[in-house]
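Give me the 3D structure for DUF1349 domain-containing protein.
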Amino acid sequence: MTDIDWNSGAWTTPPARVEITDDGMRVTAVEESDAWRITSYGFIHDTEHALLVTFEQNSAMEVAFHLDFEAQFDQAGIFVKVDDTTWIKTGVERSDGEDSLGAVVTRGMSDWSLSPIPGWHGRLVTIRASRSGDALTIRARVDNEAWRLVRVAPLDPDAAVTAGPMCCAPSRADLTVHFTSWRVVEADESLHPED
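Predicted structure for DUF1349 domain-containing protein (195 residues):
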């Protein structure tokens, strides 16, 4: 396990404010920040706040944050980028009054999946994106509970990829996300845990 320095990497879109302290990084999102391409809505949004570093093959990245979302589409997690039309954002998003684990997988056009997580609000959420072979495997957990599978998505094993913590605030101006850790860990050994 290797911690990543909060001062490393580059923002895809600068946030309204960043504060780095001994207990992590607090990021205040710009109102209407988001990442989406075309599907169903017809628009392209590429104003997410993602702090990206190189994401090597056969490794995994973990980001942890306190979950205290209030407004529609408040979101935080990990952003994985190949280029402007090929990327994945994954984490927790507040939609229609409830927090859900989700992923937006984009290859020219976006697709979106969500699964409600009752009981996670006010707790520490960790998102892990594991890059191995031709896939990105996404898992999440709350506190020290068991990992949950969120999504398996195709990812070119030869692509130059960057990734890191992400947040967006499509519907308000005052979302601040407290990220507590950002690290590289070993890639998952298999898709399914052994019995």
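The mean pLDDT is 95. Let me know if you want a second pass.
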